[in-house]
Structures are given as C-alpha cells and as structure tokens.
Amino acid sequence: MESLIQTINKLQDVFAVVNENPINLPQIVVVGSQSSGKSSVLESLVGKSFLPRGTGIVTRAPLILQMIKYTNQDMKSMLKITDNKNIKEWACFSHKENTVFHDFDEVRKEIEVQTDILAGENKGITDTPIVLKVYTSLYTLTFVDLPGITKLPVGNQPADIEEQILQLILKYVRQPNAIILAVVTANTDPATSESLKIAKQWDPEGARTIAVVTKLDIIDEGTKSDKADLLCGKVIPVKLGIIGVVNRSQKDLNENKTLEETLKNEIEFFRTNYPEICKKHGHQVLADTLQHILIKHIKKTIPILRKNLQDTKTRLESELKTLEIADCEKTFVLELLNNINKSYCETVTGDREDTSDQMLMGGAKIVNVIQENFSKKFMEVDPLYNLSDKQIENYLLNTSGIKKSSLVNHKALEIMVSKQLENLIEPALSFVDVVREEMFNILDSIDQKLLDELERFPKLKNDVRSTLDDLLEMKLNNIKKSIKSYIKTHQKFLNTTNPNYLLQLINSSTECHSSFIQDKEQCYKKISSDRSVSNVYSEFENMEKEIVSNMYTNILSSMGGLNDYKNEINVQVKLHKQFTCCYFEFIRNTLRDFVPNRINHKLVNFVLKKFDKKLKADLLMPFINNPSSGRMLVEKAGVAEERQCKEQLLNAVNKAYKSLNEIHRQ
Predict the structure, then answer these.
(1) Long-range contacts made by residues 347-351, C-beta under 8 angstroms, separation at least 24?
(2) Are 319 and 643 in contact (CB under 8 A)?
(3) Per-residue pLDDT tens for 227-262?
(4) Which of 25, 195, 510, 578 has its CA 20 to 30 A from that of 641?
(5) Are the CB atoms for 112 and 90 separated by under 8 Å?
C-alpha cells in the first residue's frame, strides 16, 4: 500500500517541475502559526534534524517532504552516485537530482540556499515548491510544509506578508483532496488557533482535518485535566483525530539531545501524565495514523484523479492544436480564411452548430437592433414635430396668394409633408451605421477556436478586420444615398389617392359619422378587390374627395359653422394638420419595412456574398506571391512561451497518468 503514496510522490514531482498543479492531489498539508512547533513535529516524524531554524519566518517556500521507505533498488541507485556503503539514510532534492545528501545539516543549508533563490533574501515568500525526498528505514509518508502564520512583518518583509502567507496556505488547503494537519499549541486557547480557523473555514465539517497538539510538557499542572478533554476530542471538532506530541525543547536543542532520546522521553511523558490515553498519542502514533489516513484517502481519490488527468490531457492537447506550427503556411492561411468566412456567414444566417443559449448573436442581434433600436426610435418621431397651428395657417395662406384656399391645398400639403418627412432621414441613415457596426462586431463572435488563432497572429487579425471593414465601407454611402433618395422622392411627389394613405385618413377620422366612414374598411376592401371597376384610380380619387368632404363637414359642424373668416381658416388648419399627420404615418410605415430590407439586401447580403472573395484577393493572394513580405504569421509575444509551457505541462500530465495506470496494474 505504501506504493500508493510513492505514486502520489511521482505526481508531485512532475508537477513541481512546471510549478503548476492541474489536478487536486491527495496530500497532507501542514498548517500552523510561527513557533507552534510545526517544524519540530516534522523532524520527529522523519527522525532527523534538517529544517531551518531561527526567528521570524523560516519556512518561506512550500516544502514537499517525501519520506520514502527505501528498497534495495533505491540503495543501489544511491550507491551508483556516492559509492558509500556506510550511508543508511539520505536525502535528494528535485532541483539536484544527481546529488545525494547524507549529512542532514547540509540538507538544512540547501533548503536555505534554494529558498533564497526562489523567494529572495528579504524574508519574502514564494509559491514555487521545494521537493525533498528523504530515504529512510521507517515508513513512507508525504507532507507539504507551509510557512507559519504570522501577523506582523519583520525586518524587510513586505507589509502584506500576512496576506501573502494566508493566500499561499489557502492555495493548498482549499483543495478538496487535501488533508489538513493543523498544529495547535496546548498553552493557548484552541478557539484562537489560526490553523484551526483556516481548517474550519475550508473544512467546516472537520472531515479532512487532523489536529496535532504540541507543548503539552510546558502547561501548568492544574490544566492537565482540561488538556485530557482536548486530547480526547471533546474540544476540537475534527473527524480524523487529535494526537498530542512532545517535541524537543530549546533546552534539548542546546544540549544536542537526539531525536531518539526525545521520543523515549515522549513515551514516558504520556505514561506518567495521561496513562489512560497514552497509547493514542506520540509521534509514532501520529506517523502510523497519517500513513493510514493518506493511503485510505489516495485509494478513494484515484478514480477521480485518473478522470481529472484524462480531462486535463484532452484540454491541453486541444489547446496545443490551436498553437501548433503549420507544416505548410499557405495551406494553413487558406484553411483559416475559409473557416473564418464560413463561421462568420453561419453566425449571421443562424446556421452555427454551437448556437448560444446565453445571449443573442449574429443575425439575431441585427434583428433585435431593428426591433429595439430602429423601429422604436423611428416610431417615436412626432409627425407634427415643430409644426404649429400658426405655421400651418401661414403655409395655407401664403401658398394661396390672392386666391381663396381650396378644400385641399396641395401646395401647402406638399411643403408641410416634405418638412416633416425630413425628420425621418437622420434616424434612417443612422440605422445604417448601427447595422454596419453590428456586422463588424459579429467577427468577434465567430467560433472561439478561430478567434484564438487570430489572437495568435496580430498582423493576420488586423488584416482580416480591415478587410471586413473595407467591405462594409464600400456600400455604406450608396445605401445611405438610396435611402435618402427614397425619402426625398416621397417628399417631392405626394400620392393622395394611395389606398394606404386613404385608409390612414379613414382610421384617423373620429369625427366622421356617415355610413361611408362607419364602414370604411369594407369599402376600402371593395375598391381594392373589385375587378369589374374599370378605372380604379378614378375610384380612389372619388373616395378621397368623399373622405375629405365628410371630414370637412364634420370638422365644420364641430366648430359651429363658418361664422367668420377666422373660423374658416381654423377649419382649414385642422383639416390640413390631419392630412399632414396621416401622410407622414403612411410614409413612415412604408419606410419601416423599406429601410431594414434595403440594408439587408445591399449591405448584409453583399457582405455574405463577397467576404470570402475579398479575403482571398486582399490577404491570401499577396501572401502566396510573397509569403515573407507582410509577416502575416508572426506570432504575438508570449505565444511561443505559452506553447512551451503547455507542452511541458502535457508531458507532466502524461507521466502522471502513466504512474496512475501502474497502480491499476498492481
């Protein structure tokens, strides 16, 4: 079963090389405050004094400590390097694979040197781990030793050192597969323990936390019964157990007391002070318990690890595919441009296979703009904006000259209609720009893989965007001219016999009560559909006269008749005001369909037909004729490094996957 731990060691090794851990490894994470005895606990478990000591923060980088119960093969490998048969226990670092350390004072120095290299010499910290393998005759076990929790910066430490350490600790303890070894001192209140606070935050049920109580040998005699409750699990709610230990004191260190002597004293201490539970505490019990917990945890998580590695492998292979260097650049550019055009057109027409259910995109967004932007803004224009009754009166009188104004003053009506229709030109033309912008933005919502490819080549990306921009610009002015010309045509030439205009008049005349007006829709349908009518135009003229006559009569009646000249003018103003409003509505309803249809036909469809051809003409052909001239396929800064990092990580994942499969075969 110890081979399971060694398999996890291999996974730690390969991921430490790339300083990235794409999967959630099962490992024991050691958390404790400064001076809590955390380092002493680890040294007692290893049976060697090898960790840096001193004031302030001593552990400034994650130390992945892999205890390995060595085999004959391990011994042979060591002898090939040292040829020293007297070595019984030794250590190796992953950053010095071919160096064997048998003097553990040298191990301490190497940890200090490597820490300074990784974290600097100013007491700062780093998240880059140091991997230390200790080959021993005891047992196989693995820990991640983290910097001790501190509150105040010391010396040249950064002001936010507490936050830096906390974030580094959380990086490990928040992982669901991490077993939290929380070191707690017996001479402080467990409720104030920083390690337990962190454990409770990320493991509220205590399901993956084991507590280690240190400094039991320095508490007051009267508090021993309280500590017995603590050691029996009545105070700290953790499910993996609570184990008390007795570390070497400063006096022991000063007197160079060996770890073997310390362990003997520890056994005697528990027999004397806690006889009923003495067999459940001590470093040996801690080691056995941790090994049992870790092996059990690894067995439980291996299927998940295998799946996570497979998923990570698939993802990295996919990402590397988008970063691969093309064998044939011309073919690569041709295929990429074809795919960009295809994805762009499918996005516009709604034929994408990966249709989004989170947001509108492509053609649907254009339709939405028509409904929410154009139609709404277009219909909000007031038909009588900036046209007062006094202005209408002046138009009527000035266009009549010395003559009396007729029932319908066509000259005045043309002037007023032309003036009001002018208010529709700006929103109609601005909508062309809105659709043009949407058509350009659609390029940012094509297949994400293609966007990633373009992001990789800044020159090619800019060229593709410029090509689409030029294509959209080609038709923009012509479309605006045609829309403006269409509106101008309606401004200059009024057709007051148009059935749609007449229907608008009928629907607007709330004051007319004749039988003809009451049955207006039926009458309109009769005139429109009756094939026996020889002169439909004449019938529409007659219809217009009758509607106008009825409107005039009823307006006149509502105003008390033609009592004087002023009253007659008021009737004319009200009548022509209604004519202007109805004709405006008639033309606006026509434009509401015409403008979007014209843009779709002359801009959207044009781009869909010509985009592919223009990409080939402007980008592909110049590249084929002179591949080196435009530096089209020069990658942006950082892509080569990204590709190398992903290749290294994929290599690490493949090694890790192979190691897991070896377990399956055992």
Answers:
(1) 347/442, 347/445, 347/446, 348/439, 348/442, 348/604, 348/607, 348/608, 349/608
(2) no
(3) 788 888 888 888 899 999 998 877 777 777 777 888
(4) 25
(5) no
